[in-house]
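Posting this for the archive.
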Amino acid sequence: MSKIGKLPIELPEKTTLTMVDGNAIAKGELGELRWKLPSVIGLTQKNGLITIINNHPDDRSSKALHGLTRAKLANMIKGVTEGFKITLEISGVGFRGEVHDNEIWLHIGFSHPVKMPILPGVTIKTLKNDILVSGIDKEVVGEMAARIRAQKKPEPYKGKGIKYQGEVIKRKQGKAAKTSTA
């Protein structure tokens, strides 16, 4: 049995999780998310707790799906109640981001701005040197943040680029000055 899969999920007030044709549907204050449950996995609801059941506990792949299903459903429930946010920091002289219609424009040291489409279900806000990526689906929010960061990863010498808030960049010393012996 999966360590993660056997943990129950607490269902908050004003949030529902229903099963329709093998799809798990989570509805909450922020919206609705759907996910197709694997056929080897079932679930039960009792007193506001959701328990994931592995119908084939001896099968190796169903053990992996057991933990995956529990994590995915917990993220869906958290997403429709609270939502997910990832903050990216831009560092570098003249580096900035702007939101235009359904695109984000990144001015990150190239001769032209990098224009990226914003994925559906994601909202992006730009502050002074920060980009706030938010939404109800954890996968989509993480994917959008990763795509933005991939445009200009932070370099280890000056630390210029786009990084996650709180990410530690190992800095390198660079070329040391030669000592002259006369």
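The chain has a mean pLDDT of 91. Residues 95 and 108 are 5 Å apart (CA to CA).
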